[in-house]
Amino acid sequence: MIFADSLSRLGTESAFVVLARAQKLAAEGHDIINLGIGQPDFRTPEHIVEAGVKALRDGHHGYTPAPGIPALREAVAADLHKRHGTEVNPDNVVVVPGGKPTMFFAVLMFGQPGTEIMYPNPGFPIYESVINFSGATPVPIALEERNGFAFSAEDVLSKITERTRLIIINSPANPTGGVTPREEIDKLVAGLADFPDVAILSDEIYSQMLYDGREHVSLLQYPEIRDRLIMLDGWSKTYAMTGWRLGYAVWPDAAVDHVTRLCINDHSCVNAATQYAGLAALEGPQDAVHDMVAQFDERRKVIVRELNALPGVRCADAGGAFYAFPNIEGTGMTSMEAQNRFLDEAGVATVAGTSFGAWGEGYLRFSYANSTDNILEAIGRIGKLL
């Protein structure tokens, strides 16, 4: 078989590689604590599960409109108005199977040879992977520990060229837990007035996971860029629904038809029962969300404290999501060496910072989507190894 050259440019998500290794070791009888994979360790709330089951029993077995059932798109618009105080037309909401299709579709719309797309580094690895796949040139936005892993608007604006087509930002961020403050977003939006042809993809999948009174600033709140803004969010993290595969984006008017055709060509539609479960999530009680975030907050305090007590390790306070991103340079190991040794010798799965881009060297990602007891045991094992 002769495969297309473009496949050689497609990367992967290393957290799943680590997960497979960890599962293999566990199957062989090793005691493994997984602090690598980025998914809530909570069950999907029962009323959401029941809504999905009821949808199947009620006969919702067939195709739905490619952008999603109207009731769900309306519920998304209502939820965004409630949370961000901004009006969203349900016709601009497109429901997709998870967060990645929005990333893929946005990059494919704007990326081609001769163009540039900016993305956070360290950042979610699929950004860079799909940019490379499209043939565009990836231009990293460096996220640095000294800035709390927030992007600098001045830095972003200075990198825009006549070839720039799309800027991807992510706050709260994976893998760092960094949260970009309003003043930097204000500066970015103001500066983008000089670049009216540059589109923005704002990945806000962790928008409801913030700590210590930090504020989530949605780019939907800036009317001056709404005609070129794609805002990504979904159910996976907020409602512990990773396996349901359900996400959405708000698209500008000019892009809605394009993304709808991409949906039709790619996956036809999201499965019907999952959409009814998503509707129940948005319109039902939110207690489980608040309880889950409160537990993440307690774990966050524990893991940051314990990591900072390790020799050769320092860990900035995580502002959002459920990740800690400690600096491990003082251990004398590279990120990949630390990842491999912690798994093979201590039985603790983490993800090397370089899995999220070159700027991640010297760091590891720890997911605290695990019990406090397991977190304490895992950090204790690492401490003994160090």
Automatic annotation (TrEMBL):
Keyword Transmembrane: no
Documented EC number(s): 2.6.1.1
Pfam families: Aminotran_1_2
Entry keywords, A to Z: Aminotransferase, Pyridoxal phosphate, Transferase
Domain (Aminotransferase class I/classII large): residue spans on this chain: 31-379
Any one GO BP annotation for this protein: amino acid metabolic process
Reaction(s) catalysed by this chain's protein: L-aspartate + 2-oxoglutarate = oxaloacetate + L-glutamate
Required cofactor(s): pyridoxal 5'-phosphate
GO MF entries: L-aspartate:2-oxoglutarate aminotransferase activity; pyridoxal phosphate binding
Transmembrane segments annotated in the record for this chain: none
Family designation: Belongs to the class-I pyridoxal-phosphate-dependent aminotransferase family.
Name assigned to this protein: aspartate transaminase
The species this protein was found in: Salipiger mucosus DSM 16094
